[in-house]
Design a protein that fits this description.
Elements: H1 3-44, H2 56-95, H3 107-137, H4 148-178, H5 181-185, H6 190-228, H7 238-255
Pfam families: LMBR1 (PF04791)
GO biological process, one term: Wnt signaling pathway
Keywords: Cell membrane, Endocytosis, Endoplasmic reticulum, Membrane, Receptor, Transmembrane, Transmembrane helix, Wnt signaling pathway
Length: 256
């Protein structure tokens, strides 16, 4: 084998091992987030939710909805932790550039995590969460055989109709605003333009909601903390308290 072919084979083998390592790391990170989110949801859920259902079909539906909600929460938590993870990994690499055991914190891993978070975020936002809601509310079409698949069919049909309704409203709004042929054909660029814009708009709405709710949450937190904690009495005047106590004692003595 020629030296050039050996070098190319070594490069391909190294790329393959790096890809396998990145897949294993991503799977471990997501599995850890999924387990953590499962414990969080099961801790805050009501006692009668998801498990304490006498009907086996309803229990299975609730467990599927629980899995979808846990998956979505894990993706959201991963999106929140991705920026701190990127910053910390960059600082670690700059601090220990020659360490062999931390070389897996490279730019390829961070880029792959960003792509996975973006893909799963859109999937959870557009499909998984609406599917979980409609799936728990579905009962199957009238006259069809009862079961899990009947609910899946009804949920799929309702979700498809909702998707067509939203796309039709977007198409009509784009045609009304643009009023030309290009605006009517712009809906065909759904994957390249509309989904990233939708994700950005919903992220902006979430940031605005966070900015609106943060002051109320902080004020509520300080109010509750002030009620629970005992105020210190270091700056109180003891002489004044003694005088008040003497006056109260004298008043009680006169009444007696």
């Amino acid at each position: 084998m020629a030296p050039v072919e050996q070098d190319a084979l070594a490069v391909r083998e190294q790329l393959f091992h790096e890809r396998v390592r990145e897949c294993i790391i991503c799977a471990l990170l997501f599995a850890s987030l999924y387990i953590l989110c499962h414990f969080i949801i099961t801790h805050f859920k009501k006692h009668a939710d998801f498990t304490a259902v006498h009907d086996d079909e309803d229990a299975a539906v609730n467990r599927i909805a629980l899995g979808l909600c846990t998956f979505t929460l894990a993706v959201a938590l991963g999106a929140v932790l991705l920026l701190p993870f990127s910053i910390i990994s960059n600082e670690v690499l700059l601090s220990f550039p020659q360490n062999y055991y931390i070389q897996w914190l490279n730019g390829s891993l961070i880029h792959g995590l960003w792509n996975l978070v973006f893909l799963f975020s859109n999937t959870s936002l557009v499909f998984l969460m609406p599917f979980a809601y409609f799936f728990t509310e579905s009962e199957g079409f009238a006259g069809s055989k009862k079961g899990i698949m009947a609910r899946v069919y009804e949920t799929s049909v309702v979700l498809l109709l909702l998707t067509l309704l939203v796309l039709g409203m977007v198409w009509v709004a784009s045609a009304i605003v643009g009023n030309d042929a290009a605006s009517r054909q712009s809906l065909y660029d759904l994957w390249e333009y509309y989904l990233p814009y939708l994700y950005s708009c919903i992220s902006l709405f979430g940031v605005l909601l966070l900015l609106l709710c943060t002051p109320f949450g902080l004020s509520t937190m300080f109010t509750v903390t002030g009620k629970l904690l005992v105020k210190p009495r270091l700056l109180e005047d003891l002489d004044e308290q003694l005088s008040c106590t003497r006056f109260e004692e004298a008043a009680v003595s006169r009444r007696i």
